[in-house]
Amino acid sequence: MAKPSLFDRLPVIHQLRQSVGLQRGMLVAGLVLTGLFLLTALLAPWIAPYSYDQLKGPDGNFGAQQAPSGAHLLGTTVGGYDVLSRVIWGSRTALLVIVVAVALSVVIGVLLGLVSGYLGGWVDRVLVVVADAIYAFPTLLLAIVAAIAISGGQSGLWPGVLAAAVSITVVFVPQYFRVVRSEVLRVKAEAFVESARVIGASTNRIMFRHVLRNSTRTLPLIVTLNAAEAISTLAALGFLGFGIEPTAAAEWGFDLNKSISDVAAGIWWTAIPPGLAIVSVVLGITLIGESLNDLADPRLRARRRAGRGTTPADAVAATQPVTREDLGEVQ
Length: 331
Fold this sequence. Notes:
Oligomer: single chain
Low-confidence stretches: 309-331
Structural class: mainly alpha
Keywords: Cell membrane, Membrane, Transmembrane, Transmembrane helix, Transport
CATH architecture of the domain at 47-277: Orthogonal Bundle
Helix content: 55-70%
CATH class of the domain at 47-277: Mainly Alpha
Strand order of the largest sheet: 1-2
Order of helices and strands: HHHEEHHHHHHHHHHHHH
InterPro entries: BP-dependent_transpt_permease, MetI-like, MetI-like_sf, OppC_N
GO biological process, one term: transmembrane transport
Number of helices: 16
Number of strands: 2
Mean pLDDT: 78
Domain ABC transmembrane type-1: 91-289
Organism: Microbacterium hydrocarbonoxydans
Shape: elongated
């Protein structure tokens, strides 16, 4: 059997080649929605008709709650901002929060999980108790408390992004901590780790060279699901009034909050676009995460192979545990 090319082994390409049927449709739909979100966020300054805080044009003020027209394709908000521009610029704010929140969560959660699982003892007990205590709090309530403590509720773009990201990070760190800790406890009992100790490898080398790289296989799945949750948490914070000032950046949750009174008056164009943006991004990222989770399940791989005409022995072999050689562990 020919060895797959480097292009075929790329993460997204590899998963696409593995997927079939409805699973492939879910993955493709998720990639399309997420790709549109990323392109919109990156190209916001060039595709948005106006700035996120612009209230007037060459002909004067835009006017509040103006219906969709040639000048404003999705109308204007109660504050007099262009709805389409606010939605486009809001994608950039959402992307910034996702990147910062997920990066902080991964770094802090992975390091704490690695130290806790490998060292054990009183360090492990203290970290487990703290993580469980944080995990027991309602997610949104904890994020609100953290946002108030960090920024006092509302602030400018970067202080607001950092406040929202840190508040989301506080919620996500226990998840990464628990996943990595359980994997470290399993990996450190393997023979190759004991061999590294016997030959005199330092603790840091064993932890980061041997244990860590074999304990983070499932992190991409958690990252995608947490990215979707980060969007929801950011929108909830903005909707409740703990987000970013409208003159500092566009934020979907804040705009959705300001459109509540418009809905009762029959003004739909101020609420549907930001709400649809939130739903689309969360749906796209969730579809990717769920598809990757299914593709990581050996039982589903066995069904796919059986459906492609492989022998029963191949299908049974696909359900067997992954060996150290398959994982490519470095001793």
